[in-house]
């Protein structure tokens, strides 16, 4: 799940837009009709930290959701109905408390869902009208935000919106509320749980770039490899036009210009090239090979000089820098140039998306 997916509203909201927006103030409610800014009121942007009190008892999912998954959803005790709404399906739950657990279940089946979060406002909001900043009172109201239910009730979130208030500082309307996400770079102490892979990196000499494949082809059990073969030769002294006309006649040359040439991918006689291009001092670039073994006792079958790196599966702590990691059971690979022991603690850098007090899409960086 990336940042865009986490916050995606999109056209799926059309499936639930028929629900009347109610704005609750002091225990009462009224229709939140869009208010026109007049001399008697003002508007401005505001960002605040609020608390998710409830979700509306419904979830919208794409109508293309796999039928087997939908059949399983219909069988769940908390689901009261699944109905078509335009190009989306509307799942109604028995209670508001069922929304977050059901959304978590859907995510485990790779299905994103949208609901409406009812978020409690702080008593005082600071709004930026464009010309000044001023404090207004919300009277402890609720804003309704379409979002994926990725946080449980009572979670704090940062919200931005346009606020409309009377000139004496009372909130009377709001528009475009959005839950905010932050991209973070953090460090954490991770624990090595196993050796997941061994990576051999090679700079294959030009004259060995053809034969090296014979050590790989037909012996790929237990490892993968990536090979970039370089069939070029470079010239320290540029060729003249007359020299180009002569050099292009060598049968192993497939292309030649003033600064370089390309040879047949099966030609590897460096001595012959050095003799034929002695007048321009040829340079022979290396080819690049990586061989990755998926077991601790793997040894590369390639008999060229290499550097070795180790990929360790690591477990991150549940809490990092005051945030709680979601999906912390995902396997992450920490690469090290040195051999380490199981249970070792290593410091890792992570990238993550923070929403409220939780981290999502955590990756090692």
Low-confidence stretches: 7-34
Proportion of residues in helical segments: 10-25%
- Mean pLDDT rating: 87
Calculate the terminal CA-CA distance, rounded to whole Å: 17 Å
Biggest sheet features = 9 strands, mixed
Q: Report the strand count.
A: 25
Strand content: over 45%
Number of domains: 2
Topology as H/E string?
HEEEEHEEHEEEEEEEEEHEEHEEEEEEEE
Gyration radius from CA atoms, angstroms: 31 Å
Instruction: Give the overall silhouette.
Output: elongated
The count of helical stretches stands at: 5
| Structural class estimated from helices and strands | mainly beta
Q: Would you summarize the structure shown here?
A:
By secondary structure, the protein is mainly beta.
How would you characterize the overall build of this protein?
The chain folds into two domains: 3-180, no CATH class; 181-230 and 286-365, no CATH class. The chain is built from five helices and 25 strands. Strand 1 and strand 2 form a beta hairpin. The model is unreliable at 7-34 (pLDDT under 50). It has helices at 3-7, 67-75, 99-108, 241-247, 270-276; strands at 22-25, 28-31, 41-55, 58-62, 79-85, 88-93, 115-120, 124-128, 133-137, 142-147, 156-166, 171-179, 182-204, 223-228, 232-235, 253-256, 260-263, 282-283, 287-293, 306-315, 319-320, 323-325, 332-336, 345-355, 358-364. Helix content is 10%, strand content 47%.
Task: Tag the structure with descriptive keywords.
mainly beta; five-stranded antiparallel sheet; elongated
Draw up the topology in text.
Blueprint: H1 3-7, E1 22-25, E2 28-31, E3 41-55, E4 58-62, H2 67-75, E5 79-85, E6 88-93, H3 99-108, E7 115-120, E8 124-128, E9 133-137, E10 142-147, E11 156-166, E12 171-179, E13 182-204, E14 223-228, E15 232-235, H4 241-247, E16 253-256, E17 260-263, H5 270-276, E18 282-283, E19 287-293, E20 306-315, E21 319-320, E22 323-325, E23 332-336, E24 345-355, E25 358-364
Parallel strand pairs: 22-25
Antiparallel strand pairs: 1-2, 3-7, 3-11, 4-6, 5-6, 7-10, 8-9, 11-12, 13-19, 13-20, 13-24, 14-19, 15-17, 15-18, 16-17, 20-23, 21-22, 24-25
